[in-house]
Design a protein that fits this description.
Distance between the termini: 38 Å
Number of domains: 1
Number of helices: 2
Shape: elongated
Helix content: under 10%
Number of strands: 16
Length: 180
């Protein structure tokens, strides 16, 4: 499996070639100070994985991933053929992970689709990621979603509280949808 690796100071992101951190892929994740703060970051279109077209990582802290849609069955019985919707993931590691996902429909008709992002955080340290099993761990709180923010938090055995906050720019999304 090809991996994309980004690094900026103490922040390291390891994803698969599609840009995903798939559940069950042991070493993938977003790490800070040898702790994995994001263990799942998975993108699907109508429940299917997009196809990789190209990726580029000219700097250690930024990458671009060009994906294309699988064939999408439409409610009217027709289909949007594979590779007729472009999915562009633009990533930057700077004071956290920033990602912009851009879609472009090359069909001569509108296509209703469902873009799904799945997130998870296990807060494993690097030894657990490498296979060490611990008898006792800290406490992972229930994720909280409010006001376009998703928060994961963990209280470690060392007494430190760690958290991952995912912020969705819904204003940008709305502007994009309104402009069509």
């Amino acid at each position: 499996m090809d991996q994309l690796v980004l690094k900026e100071n103490e922040l390291v992101l390891v994803s698969d070639e599609l840009g995903d951190i798939a559940e069950g892929r042991r070493r993938l994740g977003l790490y800070y100070h040898d702790t994995r703060y994001l263990s799942i970051f998975d993108l699907t279109i109508n429940g299917q994985k997009p196809r990789l077209m190209a990726s580029s990582s000219q700097q250690n802290y930024a990458c671009y991933i060009q994906l294309a849609s699988p064939t999408i069955e439409l409610p009217n019985g027709n289909a949007a053929l594979a590779r007729t919707i472009s999915i562009h993931r633009s990533r930057l590691l700077k004071d956290g992970l920033q990602e912009r996902i851009t879609l472009h429909n090359y069909n001569p008709f509108p296509v209703l689709l469902e873009l799904t992002l799945v997130f998870g955080s296990d807060f494993w340290d690097i030894f657990e990621v490498r296979g060490l099993e611990r008898e006792k761990r800290g406490t992972i709180s229930q994720p909280v979603f409010a006001y376009s923010r998703l928060n994961f938090s963990y209280s470690g055995l060392d007494g430190l509280k760690r958290s991952t906050e995912i912020v969705f720019d819904t204003a940008s999304l709305k502007r994009t949808l309104d402009s069509r």
